[in-house]
Amino acid sequence: MLPPMLSPEKACELVQQLPSMKLLAVDGLPCSGKSTLVTKMAARIGLQVVAVDDFFLPKSMWPRPITPSFPFPHYRYEVFLATVRELATTGRCEYLPFDWDSMEISQVARSVILSAGPVAVEGTSGLHPEIAPLFDLRFFVESDERSTLEAILKRDGSYFEEEWRTLWLPSSAIYMETEPQLRADFLVRGRGISGPED
Fold first, then answer.
1. For helices 8-16 and 34-45, angle between their N-to-C axes, nearest 10 degrees
2. Cβ neighbours for 42, distance < 8 A, ≥ 6 positions apart
3. Is residue 196 part of a domain?
């Protein structure tokens, strides 16, 4: 049975009402509205963010041949899982994020400490089955799957169009077969999903 659906506004209000909440997951398909939701939450409660995209793997390091799969072969996926586990168990983590300007892994470590405030783990596959139980609150942002590529190209242009078509979106589709919505506490209306007004 699917969890209840909230508007983005109601999801933000819920987070505000849970002062003991420390670790939050915001999952969903690419271009669903995850980052927008986290930005709205951060404006209200000062969230720190660990993005799944921080663990992207430089193309020069992709396995060869590379095919769509989950865990995503174009990410440092074991590092991502270990980072979330460390944060949940010790209250802190440190990792080298991907630098999207240089398209390489940064050599400057990023530290995140739960005592400094709540942390949102944001990105497609944030509700991986192995780490989903570690979160205090879990959201999955629902979106119109059929128009995902169109929305991505409108947002980013065509620079990575081949990668989106042949690897990244097919890999996301494989992840969706694990039914991450069922691991969420709440669904949130994202891009292309209509519902009652707040």
1. 40
2. 49, 120
3. no
180 assigned to some structural domain: yes
Q: Hey, what are 166's tokens?
A: 């042949």
Model confidence at 198, in pLDDT bands (50, 70, 90)? Answer: very low
Question: What is the pLDDT of the chain when averaged over all its residues?
Answer: 96
pLDDT of 151 over the 60 cut: yes
User: What percentage of the chain carries pLDDT values higher than 90?
Assistant: 94
First-to-last CA distance in the chain? 24
> Which tokens go with 175?
């992840």
Among candidate residues 151, 146, 143, the one with its CA nearest the CA of residue 187: 143
Domain ranges, residue 101: 5-12+23-189
Count of structural domains, the chain: 1
Q: Is residue 194 part of a domain?
A: no
Reported as type and span, the H/E element at residue 142 is: strand 137-142
Catalogue the long-range contacts made by 39-43 (C-beta closer than 8 Å, 24 or more residues apart). Answer: 40/8, 40/12, 41/11, 41/12, 41/15, 41/120, 42/120
